[in-house]
Specification:
By secondary structure, the chain is an alpha/beta fold. It folds into 2 domains: about 130 residues, Four Helix Bundle (Hemerythrin (Met), subunit A) (Up-down Bundle); about 210 residues, Translation initiation factor eif-2b, domain 2 (Rossmann fold), CATH 3.40.50. The protein is built from 11 helices and 15 strands. The strands form 4 sheets. Strands 6-5-4-7-10-14-15 form a 7-stranded mixed beta sheet, sandwiched between helices. It has a 3-stranded antiparallel beta sheet with strand order 1-2-3. A 3-stranded antiparallel beta sheet has the order 8-9-13, with helices on one face. Helix 2 packs antiparallel against helix 3, helix 3 packs antiparallel against helix 4 and helix 5 packs across helix 6. The radius of gyration is 20 Å and the shape is globular. The two termini are about 35 Å apart.
């Protein structure tokens, strides 16, 4: 059995251990963050990425920051905790789960504000660890729901990284593929390289190689031709934020794949935990899109590939309209259009059980 990837974990002595994804696939290096600022740096610089992983990482970072607070009363403690949350929130603006993780820790802190401060700090750490455990269960549930959409013999095209590295373990989109493989379905994966940071080439290919799932790396520009030749049966991607109407923000290039799927009459699936849905946003036009440094475009591994000083645009995400999405694969089940109705129904039932 393949050894599970440990993307991140809470250290018993007070710290967060993170697999540094900027060093993959060459080196498997872990960094230990001993304060919230170190966690923020790891998130900002892509040492850890992927919406579900960012949710748990942000929660752990906030719980870690709480341990260091010297407040003498609950009011000042909560004020300072909110300041740490604001700092962590500024790291990656698009990923909904990051904000969801922070909100959950802040809610627990407010709910238990009457506890002694040492006990409250311990309670926040316990909540972050609980979220870690829940994420793994959530991913396995997604895999079980989604694998039913895959037939033996299918070739699935992926984009970015949606595996264990994007979560605390197992994965979202890649978790669906993995679940199908574990059930004996003979499948193949086409891995889109995912420019500019190459999460497909560096991370997804690394995971699939460890899992032993038949795969092939292609450039992003090859996707349409492989579809035309009949060598793709489905596309499965993840999501960083989903609006209430079902519009999906995901790694730049996702929208292009959705358009290609529509032209070639192929299913376009999005796999994400239901916590990726942002109840505050009615449509994808309201999703904030992170603009990253132009150097990610003009260089690869520190080597310049464009004229010095040449301008470059680098939006990290794009938005795929709901009408191009065949289904949303969530931990709560597979949702089909009309997504607005399906999401609102599921959101209502989730609230009722909390």
């Amino acid at each position: 059995m393949t050894e599970e990837i440990r993307t991140l974990e809470w250290l018993p002595d007070g710290g967060v251990r993170i697999l540094d994804q900027t060093r993959l696939p060459g080196d498997e290096v872990y960094v230990e963050c001993r304060d919230a600022e170190a966690v923020a740096e790891a998130i900002r610089n892509l040492r850890i990425r992927g919406a579900p992983a960012l949710g748990v990482t942000a929660a752990m970072g906030l719980a870690l920051g709480a341990q260091r607070l010297q407040a003498s009363d609950a009011t000042s403690f909560l004020r300072d905790l909110k300041g740490i949350a604001d700092m962590l929130a500024r790291t990656r603006p698009t990923a909904r789960n990051l904000f969801w993780g922070l909100e959950r820790i802040l809610t627990v802190a407010e709910k238990h504000r009457d506890l002694s401060l040492p006990t409250l700090k311990e309670r926040l750490a316990e909540e972050a660890v609980k979220m870690h455990e829940e994420d793994l269960a959530c991913n396995r549930a997604m895999g079980e729901h989604g694998q039913r959409l895959i037939e033996s013999g299918d070739t699935i095209l992926t984009h970015c990284n949606t595996g264990a590295l994007a979560t605390v373990g197992y994965g979202t989109g890649l978790g669906v593929i993995r679940a199908a493989w574990e059930r004996g379905k003979q499948i193949r994966v086409l891995v889109g390289e995912t420019r500019p940071v190459l999460q497909g080439a560096r991370l997804t290919a690394w995971e699939l190689d460890r899992l032993g799932i038949p795969s092939c790396l292609i450039t992003d520009s090859m996707a349409g031709d492989f579809m035309r030749r009949g060598e793709v049966q489905a596309v499965i991607v993840g999501a960083d934020r989903i609006a209430l109407n079902g519009d999906v923000a995901n790694k730049i290039g996702t929208y292009t794949l959705a358009v290609l799927c529509r032209h070639h009459n192929l299913p376009f699936y999005v796999a994400a935990p239901f916590s990726t849905v942002d109840p505050a946003l009615a449509a994808g036009t309201e999703i904030p899109i992170e603009e990253r440094a132009p150097q990610e475009i003009t260089s690869i591994a520190g080597i310049s590939i464009a004229p010095r000083g040449f301008p470059a645009a680098n939006p990290a995400f794009d938005v795929t309209p709901a009408e191009l999405v065949t289904a949303l694969i969530t931990d709560q089940g597979v949702l089909y259009p009309p997504f607005a109705e399906a999401i609102q129904t599921l959101a209502g039932s989730s609230s009722a059980t909390q």
